[in-house]
Amino acid sequence: MKIQYSASFFKRLLAFSILFTAALPQLAQSEEIGSVDTKFKIIGANHKIVIEAFDDPEISNVTCYLSRAKTGGIKGSLGLAEDTADAAISCHQVGPIEVPDNIKAGKTDGETVFKQRTSLIFKKLQVNRFYDKKRNALVYLAYSDKVVEGSPKNALSAVPIMPWH
Q1: Contact indicator for 58, 131 with CB cutoff of 8 Å
Q2: Are 63 and 92 in contact (CB under 8 A)?
Q3: Who has greater pLDDT, 21 or 97?
Q4: Nearest alpha carbon to residue 113 among 97, 89, 79, 80
Q5: d(CA 66, CA 89)
Q6: Phi first, then psi: what are they for 78, rounded to 5°?
Q7: Is the pLDDT of residue 19 over 70?
Q8: What is the DSSP letter of 45?
Q9: What is the dihedral sign for C-alpha 104, 110, 111, 114?
Q10: Based on the number of CB atoms within 10 Å of its own CB, is 154 exposed (0-12), middle (13-18) or buried (19 or more)?
Q11: Rounded-to-integer distance, Cα 158 and Cα 138, Å
């Protein structure tokens, strides 16, 4: 039995895809600042530590720097390797900060502001933002998760919201 689809079906599917994508929260895009090699590989790229920067997509004038392990070798070069859960984060105020009301309300599980794949399918490095109302600070948590078994390894950075000079 062969199923045929009409042109209107594909138009509706495209419209739904565009609407669905627009409804997703916007996550920060990183830019690579630099890297250092940690292990020489004869074939393929070396293992390395990569340093990336990203700006908080909802709070202007907060920049986070993230360092993470990147697996080399043949699998790493082809994008098939699984990177370790090791990462560090440092976030800074780079101008005047105004926290929107929707963030001031606070979510106890934080809000994902950055996500990057660290294996072919199941593992991601994420950064969640929390608002500490009592101390007037933004807290950024970097961690790695995996569909079946996550890692407790994490890194934390806090940005006090201070008047800008």
Answers
A1: no
A2: yes
A3: 97
A4: 89
A5: 5
A6: -90, -5
A7: no
A8: B
A9: positive
A10: middle
A11: 6
Phi, psi of 150 (to 5 degrees): -80, 180
φ/ψ of residue 55, rounded to 5: -95, 140
Measured between alpha carbons, how far is 24 from 19 in angstroms, rounded to an integer? 9
Q: What is the rounded CA–CA span in Å between residue 27 and residue 116?
A: 10
Q: What is the pLDDT of residues 127-161, one digit of tens each?
A: 999 999 899 999 999 998 866 666 788 999 999 99
Sequence-ordered list of residues with C-beta below 8 angstroms from that of 141, at least 6 positions apart, any chain: 89, 110, 127, 128, 130, 154, 155, 156
Name residue 51's beta-bridge partners: 34, 67
d(Cα 154, Cα 115) in Å, to the nearest integer? 14
